[in-house]
Design a protein that fits this description.
Layout: H1 2-22, H2 26-36, H3 40-53, H4 58-75, H5 78-85, H6 94-106, H7 110-122, H8 127-143, H9 147-158, H10 165-177, H11 181-194, H12 199-212, H13 215-226, H14 235-248, E1 251-260, E2 277-285, E3 296-307, E4 320-327, E5 334-344, E6 352-363, E7 373-386, E8 391-404, E9 411-424, E10 431-445, E11 455-469, E12 475-483
Antiparallel strand pairs: 1-2, 1-12, 2-3, 3-4, 4-5, 5-6, 6-7, 7-8, 8-9, 9-10, 10-11, 11-12
Length: 484
């Protein structure tokens, strides 16, 4: 653009010089002094004097005003530039409108700058000049937080083949800012074609792809963000690896062994049956993958009572099956809604329908790259209803403690105190509240360069003292489980 402006100014200088041979007016003499001055401040003074002296034709005055604007741009006098160009503002030429746009920009007047940039882009003499004007308009509109107009200008720029890598990156970030991830991905792809995205840029592109639901692309960019020289595990790096583990999971399984020396129903699945020792297993698939933090899972599960001190049925006749589906509707909350069919595998099991909702919040049980001890808490609420039996089960469990990661390894140890409220509509005394100390151990396994550990083994033991309600909640409670 500057080459075009300089060429135009040289033409004006030659014209002025030729004219001055024929008629050396005071205005022309001063203008010629401005053209030949090596110092922009002196040139500006000469041009201002030339305009004040008069004796210039309209074309000569126009040329002097444009040259005055250029000189003042080098001295940083934004108000002076605008004053010089104001008499020409109605002229819809590239030479005038591009200078006006830059002058408004320098004067921090983005509204007028956006208008002038747009006008200049419409009459730009070459693709690179049009790109420069559209880019200026884009940033002016962005500063005004005019999302719709900013994105419209970004889409115009997307049609330009001459964008640089920096242009495509900046445009990608602007599209992200105004929540058009599809447009952003187009720009990030062009930047990636210039040079593969890496580091923080690849990470931002991954989050944009994830919001679009393009899990394969998100995984590719997340892996790119981890490539390069390794300098040990960091909190950011581990968080990315955790996200990769979540994104790439398409199926999983659980196996659990529950021991309950209290009189309550054992297990974390309401309606799993009675008995103080139970085993359960579950397998699931995610047909839509991670689904941007809102996975849908189709599962099968089964529970069996292995022992009952109260003389309840045990063994194969107690095997209770489930077939169902669940969804996590909110990406920001661990709320799970479930519907399932209970299938009587054993002769003492049920055939029924169950609806269930569970919510939990947990911290302190994942691994940390920057510390070996942290606060631990878990809050878990689970409510289920058997429609045929018209029975409702609920449990609310809260634990708080401190977790330790010995030697920074894969083991978490967490002593805690907790309280549990159990509800069973089928019992005479429906509710029971208990509390007591416990210890939780979790061993993380199955990790690689890109993925954080995807499986764990849990062992939790707690002694509970009755606080209110039925005495069935008092005693020793334990869980041994494997999550794959």
């Amino acid at each position: 653009m500057r080459r075009l402006i300089t060429s135009a100014l040289l033409t004006l200088m030659v014209t002025s010089a030729a004219t001055s041979i024929c008629a050396q007016t005071p205005g022309l003499n001063l203008a010629n002094a401005g053209y030949t001055a090596s110092d922009p401040a002196k040139a500006a003074l000469a041009f201002q004097a030339a305009l004040a002296a008069g004796g210039l034709s309209d074309d000569q005055a126009r040329g002097v005003r444009l040259s005055l604007s250029d000189a003042l741009s080098q001295t940083g006098d934004a108000p002076g530039r605008l004053a010089a160009l104001t008499p020409l503002a109605a002229e819809m030429s590239y030479a005038v409108q591009s200078r006006l746009a830059y002058a408004f920009d320098a004067a921090k007047r983005p509204t007028e700058a956006a208008v002038a940039y747009g006008a200049a882009a419409g009459v730009a003499p070459a693709p690179e000049a049009r790109i420069a004007m559209l880019r200026g308009r884009l940033f002016a509109l962005s500063n005004l937080s005019l999302g719709g107009e900013t994105l419209a200008t970004a889409r115009q720029l997307a049609l330009e083949p001459g964008l640089s890598r920096d242009d495509t990156i900046n445009l990608g970030y602007i599209a992200v800012r105004f929540m058009d991830d599809r447009l952003a991905q187009g720009f990030f792809a062009r930047a990636d074609a210039f040079q593969p995205l890496a580091g923080a840029l690849a990470l931002d592109a991954a989050y944009s792809a994830q919001r679009l639901g393009d899990q394969a692309l998100a995984v590719r960019y997340l892996k790119r963000s981890l490539d390069g020289p390794e300098s040990g595990e960091t909190t950011r790096r581990y968080q990315v690896r955790r996200e990769l583990a979540d994104l790439s999971r398409r199926a999983g399984a659980y196996a659990s062994l529950f021991y309950d020396d209290t009189g309550a129903r054992t297990g974390r699945v309401p309606g799993a049956g009675s008995g103080n020792l139970q085993a359960g297993t579950e397998a699931y698939i995610r047909p839509l993958g991670y689904n941007n933090g809102r996975p849908v899972e189709v599962f099968v599960r089964a529970f069996e009572t292995l022992n009952s001190r109260r003389g309840d049925p045990t063994g194969s006749e107690t095997v209770q099956g489930w077939v169902g589906a669940r969804v996590k509707p909110l990406a920001s909350q661990n709320l799970v809604l479930e519907g399932s069919r209970l299938v009587s595998i054993g002769s003492r099991a049920l055939d029924d329908w169950m609806v269930r909702g569970a919510w939990s919040s947990t911290s302190g049980l994942d691994l940390h790259a920057d510390r070996n001890a942290t606060r631990m808490h878990q809050v878990y609420v689970d409510v289920a209803h058997l429609t045929g039996a018209n029975a409702t089960f609920a449990v609310a469990d809260a634990r708080i403690g401190r977790s330790y990661q010995p030697g920074g390894g894969p083991l978490i140890l967490a002593p805690f105190v907790g309280a549990t409220l159990a509800y069973d509509s089928g019992l005479r005394r429906e509710a029971a509240l208990s509390a007591g100390p416990g210890v939780w151990a979790r061993l993380w396994t199955r990790q690689d360069r890109y993925r954080a550990p995807q499986s764990y083994i849990d062992l939790a033991l707690q002694y509970r003292v009755r606080m209110a309600g039925d005495r069935r909640a008092e005693g020793i409670f334990g869980i041994f489980s494997l999550a794959y």
